[in-house]
TrEMBL record:
Membrane-associated protein that warps the membrane surface to access and bind aromatic isoprenes with high specificity, including ubiquinone (CoQ) isoprene intermediates and presents them directly to COQ7, therefore facilitating the COQ7-mediated hydroxylase step. Participates in the biosynthesis of coenzyme Q, also named ubiquinone, an essential lipid-soluble electron transporter for aerobic cellular respiration. Pathway: Cofactor biosynthesis; ubiquinone biosynthesis. It comes from Palleronia caenipelagi. It comes from the Bacteria. Residues 121-190 form the COQ9 C-terminal domain. This is COQ9 family protein. Keywords: Lipid-binding, Transit peptide, Ubiquinone biosynthesis. InterPro entries: COQ9_C, Ubiq_biosynth_COQ9.
Length: 237
């Protein structure tokens, strides 16, 4: 058993394997070959590595994605978002989720989760990221908006990742602009939605859907923070 020196923290063996795997993903993808190479690098046997990632590359790709989701709140806390409008905060947090990622690891992960067997799991991971982004922003919705916001952002984030993977602009400036455009598209939709709900006839037409959405409850109460519906509804965003 390894003795941990004072002031030293023992790294999670899954994280240790993931870090080693990132050195090989570009060549072998998220595969058993990559897991084997990573196991050799950290000095454990393949059976031990398989115990940590039973499905091999698939579980490593999933673990990498979820680890990046977990790290997002730390990035947001370190960022200065106080002077940004709400829509700008959403755009910035989307960028923070991308910033620092291993692009080849993401590309290879998308290849894994585009396979029919794993497509459903891939969709859940995108939802997880949308949830992480809203939670990092302090989303306080508890009704149907909880689902609508994550569904909308899942579509935005998926398109942003695809754009980012092909972006060769300095500092990914084209991706930053693309994020702003996508947020702008959603904001325009929100303005139309608000206008419809503000019109007596529109309110009548939407009374049924709005009532149903008001009856839907979020699975858990998200952290308290910034109010608003989809992208800053009710904010000056």
């Amino acid at each position: 058993m390894k003795v941990v020196a004072k002031g030293e923290t023992m790294q999670d063996p899954r994280d240790k394997l993931l870090d080693a795997a990132l050195m090989h993903v570009a060549f072998d993808g998220w595969s058993d070959a990559t897991l084997g190479q990573a196991a050799r690098d950290v000095g454990i046997s393949m059976p031990e590595a398989k115990a940590l990632f039973p499905r091999g590359g698939v579980d490593m790709a999933k673990a990498y994605h979820l680890r990046c989701d977990r790290e997002l709140s730390t990035k947001v806390k370190a960022a200065d978002l106080a002077d940004l409008r709400y829509s700008e905060k959403v755009a910035e947090v989307i960028w923070l989720r991308l910033d620092g990622l291993d692009r080849e690891a993401v590309r290879r992960g998308m290849a894994v989760f585009s396979l029919p067997f794993y497509a459903g799991e891939g969709a859940k991971l995108v939802w997880s990221t949308a949830d992480a982004i809203w939670n990092a922003l302090g989303d306080s919705s508890t009704d149907g908006n909880w689902y609508t916001k994550r569904m909308t952002l899942s579509g935005v984030y998926s398109s942003v990742v695809l754009y980012w993977l092909g972006d060769s602009s300095p500092g990914y400036s084209a991706t930053r602009d693309f994020i702003d455009r996508r947020i702008g598209d959603v904001m325009r939709f929100q303005k139309v939605k608000s206008a419809v709900n503000g019109n007596p006839l529109g309110r009548l037409m939407m009374s049924g859907p709005n009532f149903l959405m008001s009856r839907v409850q979020a699975p858990v109460r998200p952290p308290q923070g910034f109010p608003g519906a989809i992208f800053g509804e009710g904010e000056n965003g």
